[in-house]
Amino acid sequence: MKVKHIASAVLVAAFAVACGGPKTAPVEEMTLKDAVGDKFLIGTALNVNQVAGRDTNATNIVKTQFSAIVPENCMKMEEVQPEEGKFTFEDADAFVKFGEENGLTMTGHCLIWHSQCPEWFCVDKNGKNVTPEVLKQRMKTHITTVVQHFKGKLKGWDVVNEAIIEDGSYRKSKFYEILGEEFIPLAFQYAHEADSTIELYYNDYGMDNPGRRDGVVKLIRSLKEKGLRIDAVGMQGHMGMDYPKIEDFEKSMLAFANEGVKVMITEWDMSALPTASRTANISDTVAFKKALNPYPDALPDSVSQAWNARMKQFFDLFEKHADIVDRVTAWGVTDGDSWKNGFPIRGRKDYPLLFDRDYQPKAWVKEVIEEAKNAETPSAE
Ligand code: G3I
C-alpha cells in the first residue's frame, strides 16, 4: 500500500474501530471501490445522458462502484468552445455537479487534441493555417478559460491527447504543422499558469508499442527539462483479446514510472470481438463485415470466460503496481455505452466494459470483490 495512504488508513481504521464502526464497508455490501480501497482510484467515463440524469441505472452503478469519473465528451474542445470566444459549459458543469454531489474524484478530458477540435481553431476565415502567434493565443485563451472555469473542482487534466504515433514521432496534426513540437510544452505551460495546483497529464493509446513508449519517455524528459509540470501519463488501455501483450504493457508502465511520473489507465475497455484494427484514432474506421460481428445476441460462454480471465490478468497487473498506478478508469459504465459498439466498425455489438447491458457486474469484477471480502473476513481458526 502507498506510504502516503498508510497513515490515513491507520487513522481512519483506528477511528472507525474506536467508534465501533467497520474498518471498511460491511463485507456483505462490499462494492468494487471498497474492494480496490486506496490502492488506486477506480473510475469510469460518463456520457451526456448519464450527466443529464437520463440514465439512472448507470449513475447508480457509478455512485456505488466507482471512486472517480471522467467526461467522455462534454469537456472536449468542440464541446466547450464550438465557436471562437463562445464557451458553453452546460453539460460539463452538470458533470462536475454530479461528481461533487457524490464525492467522486474528477479528471478533465481533454484540453488539446487533434480530434473533436473545432474547425475554426487552427485555420483562418479562408481555411488557411493560422500563424504560430495566432494559434498560441488561441491555445492560451482556450486552456486558460477552461482550466480556470473548473478551478478547485478537478484533480487533474488530460492536457494533450494522442500526439505521438506508433514510431515515436509526432502526429502531423495542425498543432504540429503550425507550431512543431513546441505545442505540447506550451499547452502544459498554459495549463499550469491557469491553475498551479492542478495535476497535468499526457494521455495516449497503444502505449505498449515500443516506438510510442520511447516517444512518450522522451516527451516526459523534455517537459521536465523545461521545468514544466507533468504529474502522470495516461495509458488509455483500449484492448482486444489479442492485444496488447501484457508484458509489453507492463514494460511501458515501468518505463513511464521510471521517469518520475505516475501511471493511469485512463480509458480501459477490452473488445470481446475479432480485432479489426488496433488504433483508437477515431478517423480510422473499418467496413462492416458480418464475420466481425459474430455475437449479435450474446457472448458465448467460452468467449466470456476468456474475456473475464484476460481482464482479471490486467487488473492483477494494475494491483501489482499499485505503488505507481494512481487511477484505473473504464471508458464507459455498461457494454451498451461503449464507443466500441460503433468503432472501428459501426453497428457491432461488443462486450468491453465492467458492467453488462443489464447493469450487472462482469464475472471478473465479482471475483475481485469476493477476493477482497475473503481478505476482510477473519479466518475461522
Ligand atoms: O453530440 C453529437 C450528437 O448531437 C449527434 O446527434 C451525434 C450523431 O452525429 O453525434 C454526437 O457526437 C458524437 C460524440 O461522440 C458524442 O456522442 C460524435 O459524433 C462522435 O464522434 C463522438 O465519439 C467519441 C470519440 O471519442 C470521438 O471523439 C466517443 O463517444 C468517445 O468515446 C471517444 O473517446 C476517445 C477519447 O476521447 C480519446 N481516446 C480515444 C477515445 C476513442 O476514440
Describe the 3D structure.
α10 runs parallel beside α11. The chain has one domain (40-368): TIM Barrel, CATH 3.20.20. With 381 residues, it is α/β, with parallel strands linked by helices. Mean pLDDT is 92; it is low at 1-10 and 12-23. It has an 8-stranded parallel barrel with strand order 1-2-3-4-5-6-8-9, surrounded by 5 helices. It contains 13 helices and 9 strands. The two termini are 26 Å apart.
Number of strands: 9
Rounded Rg:
21 Å
Main beta sheet, described? 8 strands, parallel, barrel
SSE order, as H and E?
HHEHHEHHEHEHHEHEEHEHEH
Work out the helix count. Answer: 13
- Classify the secondary structure makeup into a structural class: alpha/beta
Number of domains: 1
Shape: globular
| CA-CA gap between termini | 26 Å
The first-level CATH class name: Alpha Beta
Query: How much β-strand is present in the residues?
Result: 5-15%
The CATH topology name reads TIM Barrel
